[in-house]
Amino acid sequence: MTQPIIQMKGVVKSFGCFQALHGVDLSVTEGEIVVIIGPSGSGKSTLIRCINQLEEHNGGDIVVDGIAVGKGRRRAAQAEVGMVFQSFNLFPHMTVLRNVALGPVRVRNLSWAEAETRAKRLLARVGLEDHIAKYPGQLSGGQQQRVGIARALAMEPKVLLFDEPTSALDPEMVGEVLDVMQQLAKTGVTMVVVTHEMGFARKVADRVVFMDGGRIVEEGRPDEIFNAPRDPRLRSFLQAVL
Ligand code: ADP
Ligand code: MG
Predict the structure, then answer these.
(1) ipTM summary value
(2) Is the CB of 45 under 6 A from ligand 1?
(3) How far apart are CA 199 and CA 56, in angstroms?
(4) In angstroms, rounded to a whole number, what is the distance separating the alpha carbons of residues 67 and 70?
(5) Which key words tag this protein in UniProt (predicted)?
(6) Ligand 1: does its nearest atom lie under 6 Å from the Cβ of 167?
(7) What gap in Å lies between CA 187 and CA 130, rounded to an integer?
């Protein structure tokens, strides 16, 4: 039996009197690639930010790798969750190599030498071996996002979360980042990806989750979601984006 890496039950999140998540149930098993789609404002970012505790949920349960997350328990599970942001969030005053090595030194107690060896290996894997001494500002957006992916991998997380990783990129750079993500998906890493790239969802996802209005409205295999959508909200969303 594979135990879920992420288990969410009845998760509620409010911002003041506005409720962004209305009782979300979602579980993700080891090695699974889950792609979350849905209109802007449907709660996709809030959902994944609750998983890694950038937001604290107000109700329901979230268990990550067997550890309940929430009040006062933040640290334990957070280290097991890697995050790739839309806006890269690299440290501009640190080299690419340092950006990737920093987390393992701070959180995993590696020496700088060990962490830099790991960082070099991961930067080679995302095709950036020639850029390790540069600063983020000297790289293209696509290259910066590949650094972001290497940085997340350096923590050897149990699950990688991506929040619209290609939305801030010029169109010609989207492909190189999606290619890296697709390669990664083949290695057995567990991934939860929020994206508007429907081609990626179709090709790479094991399961596609459609959110609307703070709820999971429909989920299924890519062929089910794209070829036989049932809910009218999903149908009109797909009509608008495809
Ligand atoms: P998505 O990622 O699907 O576009 P979000 O999860 O960012 O949607 O947002 C869901 C809803 O919650 C939106 O209506 C948004 O305005 C609201 N929201 C998100 N973050 C905050 C916040 N920090 N304060 C108030 N409202 C928020
Ligand atoms: Mg979002």
Answers:
(1) 0.98
(2) yes
(3) 32
(4) 10
(5) ATP-binding, Hydrolase, Nucleotide-binding, Transport
(6) no
(7) 23
Q: Of how many residues is the chain composed?
A: 242
Q: Give me the tens of pLDDT residue by residue for the chain, a chain 242 residues long.
A: 577 999 999 999 999 999 999 999 999 999 999 999 999 999 999 999 999 999 999 999 999 998 888 766 656 677 889 999 999 999 999 999 999 999 999 999 999 999 999 999 999 999 999 999 999 999 999 999 999 999 999 999 999 999 999 999 999 999 999 999 999 999 999 999 999 999 999 999 999 999 999 999 999 999 999 999 999 999 999 999 98
Q: What would the two tokens of residue 30 be?
A: 């080891």
Beta pairing class for 215-220 and 207-212: antiparallel
Ligand in closest contact with the CA of 36 = 1
Q: Mention every residue, 6+ apart, whose C-beta is less than 8 A from residue 162.
A: 83, 84, 181, 191, 192, 193, 194, 195
